[in-house]
Amino acid sequence: MRTAFAKYEGAGNDFILIDNRDGGFTPDAELIARLCDRHFGIGADGLMTLSHNAEIDCSMRYYNADGSLGEMCGNGARCFALFAEHLGIGGETKFFDATDGLHTARIRRTKGAWGEIEVAMIAVREIRRGDGWWFLNTGVPHYVEFVDDVEAVDVCARGRRIRYDLDRFPQGTNVNFVQPLGPGVLRMRTYERGVENETLACGTGATAAAIVTSYTQQSDTARFRVLVPGGELTIRFAHEPSTATYTDVRLSGPARRVFEGTFDSENF
Questions:
Q1: Does the pTM of the predicted model rise above 0.70?
Q2: Contact, 12 vs 230, CB < 8 A?
Q3: Which residue of the set 58, 73, 79, 156 is catalytic?
Q4: Per-residue pLDDT tens for 12-67?
Q5: 144 - beta bridge partners?
Q6: Beta carbons of 143 and 174 less than 8 angstroms apart
Q7: Is 58 a catalytic site residue?
Q8: Cα gap 84→96, rounded to integer Å
């Protein structure tokens, strides 16, 4: 069966998107992993389907590159919102649900295939501290560690060991190495669970990095620029002083449609 798809990227985090409002595409873990393969497939960090929802604009389901169902993806959600915009779904503010709950996305600017999108993320009310690291959930679990030089970190080797440290993180974790550059400015690299590699950007990771930096070092800062290998993301939030409670969390950044096409599932 032939299936139409579009390829989008947000700060280098790339995704396959499928309009599944007719229910014609059946998500299958092995097929998704083959489609996301960078040598034998389309190539992507993940795949998302857009389906009909009678109560809101649409529903997003995110699948990791290994085919497993993901809870949330910040960069993916921004690409998803631009995909919905290109399909003519919803207004300037999109209302959609993901596995972790209801979200909104605001189309701040668009020009052809490109857009700047702001996504509302879930609130954070708990931050766990370890020996030189912090752990929190920003839609998916994230480990945050501050380093002096993020470029000197062997992200894949160290990230993989931490990601699979099931004694500390029974469900696994995404791993972020963060270098503060000044007030409200961070540099970050991420090892992503489900991709099992370093990615060029991670929206939920950038959100985690900004919140932990505010919590530990910059309590008066409520807006951060996070520089990642694929570009730049902006995070802002409201913070209740002397607590680990962060609300009205917003992730902003670019999204772009790269190309469109069709694939034959029998070819995979």
A1: yes
A2: yes
A3: 73
A4: 999 999 999 999 999 999 999 999 999 999 999 999 999 999 999 999 999 999 99
A5: 134, 176
A6: yes
A7: no
A8: 10
